[in-house]
Amino acid sequence: MAAPSTAKDLRVVLGETLFAARAMVGWRLLAADGSGGLIVETEAYTEDDPASHSFRGPTARNRSMFLPAGHAYVYRSYGVHCCFNVVTGDGGAGEAVLIRAIEPRSGIEAMRERRGVVEERLLCSGPGRLTQALGIDLSHDGVSLLGDGGLRLLPPEGAVQPGRVVATTRIGITKGADLPRRFVLLGSPFLSRRGGAKG
DNA sequence: CCAGTGATTCTCT
DNA sequence: GAGAATCACTGGC
Prior knowledge:
Elements: H1 7-14, H2 17-23, E1 28-30, E2 36-45, E3 72-77, E4 81-88, E5 95-106, H3 108-115, H4 127-134, E6 152-154, E7 165-168, E8 182-185
Antiparallel strand pairs: 1-2, 1-6, 2-5, 2-8, 3-4, 4-5, 7-8
Helix pairs in contact: 3-4
The protein binds a DNA duplex through residues 43, 45, 51-53, 56, 59-61, 75-81, 83, 85, 98, 100, 126-129, 170-174, 192.
């Protein structure tokens, strides 16, 4: 399929979670103030996945995971950080893609201030870091990402080179830990951890 | 490597 | 309801 551009195109891509998790590497995530950058690391969480927050059905925390694809699921992690997901899958399946790292491209000074960190490589290289950098918090839980304002998910400006995205196992989970459901831009210095090739 | 951190969820009354 | 375990993390040794 051609590069997605319309909101309808984006919803088609987001309808299949594992495909979307890989495809979204190279897409852009922008905050309301225009700060943000390129997604370089994602993780897929499907409805049959014991590691997914939705595995045991809807709860107060995870209810926005069951919204239509293209909405945000934001939750508090370890009582401290917020983590940001793009809801995916058809028909409110309870699937989502965790955005784990982005490559800063715009609004870098604003992100530095929100993070209290200068080094660019440390601004958005982790799920808790990038939400702090973009000012994402629980008020963004359940919002649409395909609109014109606020938090926006946008298709890539240029084609991602084939073969540049590789799958690895996910970070920080105990269940489903062997599944290759983390997708990284190979060799990117902005990953939360070194991705791809072993060693 | 490990401590901090507190919401969320599970289990048992 | 209460107590306990768990936890999609970060930062500092």
